[in-house]
């Protein structure tokens, strides 16, 4: 694909601006989409160059540990992406492990890397049923747990006020079996924990965009209807929510990718509520699919292209993030016990067909 390898440890954003302003680049691309032009942009500015030209953020989940010890990875992230989201480093259990004690070192490191490379930061996540530290229990009772939630959100969102552009305020609150998921928050506080979380977040940083984030709610169906009803209700009652994060963890076999038509309908009904949508955690796993590795990569590329073309056609989609960048560092083997290959770069940081498919989707 002729993509130049980034030199180790290069965090200098100036060099990727060598092709000129995003507006000039956009004009050039709209007039000439020849493969050579696109390849030149990708080689020098990465996906972020195409995203900037289109006014769309392109991001990846990152981990502070990898950024610190793997210079090639750090250079890849800085070259290709205009946004980052901490894959784990802002979760409750990591930043607030004990009452009154916060551990912001890793989260700070990510925010610093982002600033050094003119990348925006998405915050993930304030309220979730996983990675909650042992001291936070439903047995604390409603009032104390509301106090814990309020203190946590004020401290974390307040620390990054003006530096985190959007927060996944509540993550995965809808149960796969239907209804509100049982969690420390729902059992300890009650169903209104969501609206309290959004209000605490708005108070801590009025300029940050506030999202509800979930998986399996991308197309149409029971779960996406439930997410829709949840956010419609929040909006109707004046709760400060700005958008919905559709995670987009999909696969060639499972979970199925949404059809472009269903995705467009879902995006449309959320837009009608006045909500933005971000594709927050996309990856496309190969597991179980038949064919040679090349055939699977080609089918994977088609999924990236089809889903992102449909998403980016919607005016309320302003950013797309992948849950990682390289197959070297992906959550999937840790969760399933099987190697996979769901991301746009292989484990040697070479772009896969999916990479060019993402570029194509940005150009459509
Ligand atoms: O850091 C510890 C390490 O010290 C310890 O030795 C090791 C032993 O298991 O665990 C390490 O922590 C792991 C952590 O990832 C960092 O790698 C946790 O066990 C592991 O549970 C955790 O998994 C994360 C998972 O969320 C649970 O929090 C994945 O990396 C992360 O990709 C995943 O991300 C979620 C999103 O937040 C929400 N949407 C779904 C997505 C995928 O599950």
β-strand amount:
5-15%
Just give the CATH class.
Alpha Beta
- At the fourth level of CATH, the homologous superfamily is Glycosidases
Overall 3D form: globular
The N- and C-terminal alpha carbons lie at a distance of 20 Å
How many structural domains? 1
| Overall average residue pLDDT | 93
Ligands and ions found: ligand G3I
Q: Helical percent range? A: 40-55%
Strand numbers in spatial order across the main sheet: 1-2-3-4-5-6-8-9
Poorly predicted runs are 1-19
**Count of β-strands:** 9
* SS summary, helix count: 14
Brief sketch in words of this structure:
With 364 residues, the chain is of the alpha/beta class. The chain has 14 helices and nine strands. Helix 1 (22-31) packs across helix 2 (35-54) and helix 2 (35-54) crosses helix 14.
